[in-house]
Amino acid sequence: MNVFNLLGLAWKALTRNKMRSALTMLGIIIGVGAVITMVSIGEGSKQSIRSQLSSMGSNMITIRPFSNSTAGGGARVGAGGLQTLKVKDASSILNEVSFVTDVSPAVSTNGQAINASLNWPTSLQGVSPDYLTIRDWKLVSGTAFTDDDVATAGKVCLLGQTVVDNIFNGVESPVGKVIRFNKIPLKVMGVLEKKGENTFGQDQDDIILAPYTTVQKRIMAITHIQTIYAAAVDEKSSDTATKEIGVVLRANHKLHFGEEDDFRVRTQAELISTMSSTSQLLTVLLTAIAAISLLVGGIGIMNIMYVSVTERTKEIGLRMAIGARGIDILLQFLTEAILISITGGIIGVILGISSAKLVTVFLAWPTLISQSSVVLSFVVCAVTGVFFGYYPALKASRLDPIEALRYE
Amino acid sequence: MPNKILDINDLKREFIMGVETIKALKGITFSVDAGEFVTIMGSSGSGKTTLLNILGCLDIPTEGTYLLDGVNIKTLSRNELAKLRNHKIGFVFQSYNLLARTSAIENVELPLFYNADIPTKQRREKAMNALEAVGLKDRMDHMPNQLSGGQQQRVAIARALVNEPVMILADEATGNLDTKTSYEIMMLFQELNSKQGKTIVFVTHEPDIAVFSSRTVTLKDGRVIKDLKNENVHSAKDALASLPVEKETEEIKQAT
Ligand SMILES: Nc1ncnc2c1ncn2[C@@H]1O[C@H](COP(=O)(O)OP(=O)(O)O)[C@@H](O)[C@H]1O
Ligand SMILES: [Mg+2]
Q1: Are residues A314 and A355 in the same domain?
Q2: Which ligand 1 atom lies nearest to the CA of residue B43?
Q3: Which of A229, A382, B111, B131 has the most CB atoms at less than 10 Å from its CB?
Q4: Whether residues A239 and A95 fall in one domain
């Protein structure tokens, strides 16, 4: 018996009992379909988290103050209230830390942006021009403010798209106009390109950028800074940069040996890996559930193959009497099991891919159909056929021809 | 010296049922030459089927030797026995054993699947020839349930013939058939024996079937009690021809 004979024989056997074959296949179809859909949802969310995080600038390093002690036995102060970071820290990082290319001090406050009769509650972030490089943020119109504007605490700003949408009527160009933020007039120098929501669902375009000195002096009346953003040369060097930043800041803050840091350095790479490991877990869980349904499908095949072997005992006896060897019978039933699982697998792959697409279209969830998940589930499926088909087939091949012929 | 197709010597077969040992064959010795048409007779339970299963290499004797076409089957593996069954033996059963929902021609093709010597292309043709030999060429696409008992048995005979075996083994092949159809089947066996020279071992418990063979071996309780050449072999064709007349006379007898 060659492969074609075996396939032909198996095909005939399966079409002889169409309903049963279809129902048996259904287990595999659902199993494979579920694996592919689930993995594509998991992979899709992982992918979208990754791309969103790296759209923030994957080399970005964030330094925030951190309440290191309960000095004076008082309650710990929230990070926002700490005043330990200074502009000097930012310049030390830029000058002393290797692998750091850009640094921007940052302060931020909320308030009302007003243009003529329109107003909009938003946040104002004070930064240096380097901030745009760090965040890889471009302008759609106008120009960025400069280091001169920082030096002079110039009353200039850049608007996020959401702010533009809410305080400009859409006809006039915002560039060159003067808006007010908490009564302080700021001249619009440019409009930022749209960034959309971040991983946490915040609208990144609901923002106004201005020189940090302007925000510090004219709006918030503070001298400290809240955050320092820095960019490492590349993702790999961000670890080294992080360590060096720690040393520089400890020296600046005159922390003694044994004292805890009064700041915290976070890299984007770190955040990416935390986030993707969360979604990795999600993928694993979803896949496990799907794999269980594939297992159930496999057991369905095994069950039906046992029934089939019992039903066809007489046929097996006859085949043996006319010269079939044990291996011929084994292969015959194994081929049937594999054919069921592979046909089910093909349909399952099609179903899985289309339902992943439907999930994206109707639920707007990101999905990513990875080739490996298709190939893998297909292989798993064939293996399932072999694994669950083997024992019934072996049972068939070991039947005693005389007993089998006498079976009614 | 004529060529011995099968040669059995002091063949014994015991079945162990729990603590009990059933001696189905208690030492059987005889041989069959090429071209013989042997009937094995005996009442139910005398060991005919057990013997035939051993002759057909489906079963192994507990003791004794069996040479098939000069080969001692005791020395063969399971796979070699399967090959032997495929190449040298054609089985015909009482209950036909055709595969359901499988056409006549496909049933006949079945043994060819397990014969590596026959290329795929020749299968159809060989099966067709075998069906033609049993007079069922025009029914090749019929399913078993669309055929009469006699026709089904013919398909089974075609299946037994298709690999051109040296020997046909039939177990109560006419047991499920009426007298007329039985005679038709016997006619076919006689033709195969005389025209194609096929060796036939035919198991039956009906004495009126045994008259068509050239030799009758009678078993009783697992032993051969008679082994006779049949001097007066009846022709199944003649028996068939005389059949309707007999029926008529019977009817006349009953009427009068
Ligand atoms: N597989 C078996 N297990 C136990 N006893 C058996 C088996 N096959 C046959 N026998 C016994 O062997 C004897 C001969 O049976 P069998 O060859 O079928 O007789 P026949 O075909 O002449 O009617 C019977 O007593 C039967 O019960
Ligand atoms: Mg019997």
Answers
A1: yes
A2: 22
A3: B111
A4: yes
List all residues 6 or more positions away from A184 whose beta carbon is below 8 Å from its beta carbon.
Answer: A155, A218, A219
Residue in A with minimal Cα distance to B116: A1
Digit-by-digit pLDDT tens for chain B (256 residues) are 568 999 999 999 999 999 999 999 999 999 999 999 999 999 999 999 999 999 999 999 999 999 999 999 999 999 999 999 999 999 999 999 999 889 999 999 999 999 999 998 999 999 999 999 999 999 999 999 999 999 999 999 999 999 999 999 999 999 999 999 999 999 999 999 999 999 999 999 999 999 999 999 999 999 999 999 999 999 999 999 987 655 545 445 555 4
Cα separation, A324 vs B82, whole angstroms: 6
CATH annotation of B34-61+75-255: 3.40.50.300
Which atom, in ligand 1's list, is nearest to the CA of B219?
22
Nearest of B25, B76, B35 to residue B199 by alpha carbon = B35
Q: In the numeric block, which tokens belong to residue A362? A: 């109707």
Q: Residue B229 pairs with which residues in a beta bridge?
A: B215
The preferred substitution site among B46, B50, B219 for testing ligand 1, maximizing ligand atoms within 8 Å of CB, is B50
- How many domains is chain A partitioned into structurally? 2
Whether residue A395 sits in one domain with residue A299:
yes
Are residues B113 and A5, on separate chains, in Cβ contact within 8 Å?
yes
pTM as predicted: 0.72
- CA–CA distance, A384 with A295 (Å, rounded to integer): 8
Q: Which ligand 1 atom lies nearest to the CA of residue B22?
A: 5
Helix residue ranges per DSSP H, A153-224: 161-167, 212-214
pLDDT digits (tens, 9 = 90+) for A147-167: 999 999 999 999 999 999 999
**Residue A145 is which amino acid?**
F
Distance CA B26, CA B220 (A): 10
In a 3-state reduction of DSSP, which class is residue A229?
Answer: strand
Nearest to B179 by CA among B224, B209, B143, B222: B209
Task: Residue B99: list chain A partners with CB under 8 A.
Answer: 315, 318
Rounded distance, CA A27 to CA A298, Å? 7
Does A40 lie in the same domain as A81? no
In chain B, what is the straight-line distance between the N-terminal and C-terminal CA atoms, in Å?
A: 57
Residues A245 and A362 in one domain: no
- Which sequence spans correspond to the domains of chain B? 34-61+75-255
Q: What tokens appear for A16 in the block? A: 């002889």
| A404 contacts chain B (CB < 8 A) | no
- Asked if A323 lies within 8 A of B85 by C-beta distance, the reply is yes
Q: Which of A227, A261, A295 is the last residue of a domain?
A: A261
Q: What is the ipTM of this complex?
A: 0.91
Of the two residues A75 and A105, the one the predictor is more confident about is A105
Cα–ligand 1 centroid distance for B215 (angstroms): 23
Q: Which of A211, A227, A261 is the last residue of a domain?
A: A261
Q: Are residues A22 and A91 in the same domain?
A: no
Pairing outcome for strands B199-203 and B167-171: parallel
Q: Are B99 and A318 in contact (CB under 8 A)?
A: yes
Note whether A405 contacts B114, CB cutoff 8 Å: no
CA dist A211 and A145 (Å) reads: 7
**Nearest listed ligand to the Cα of residue B41:** 1
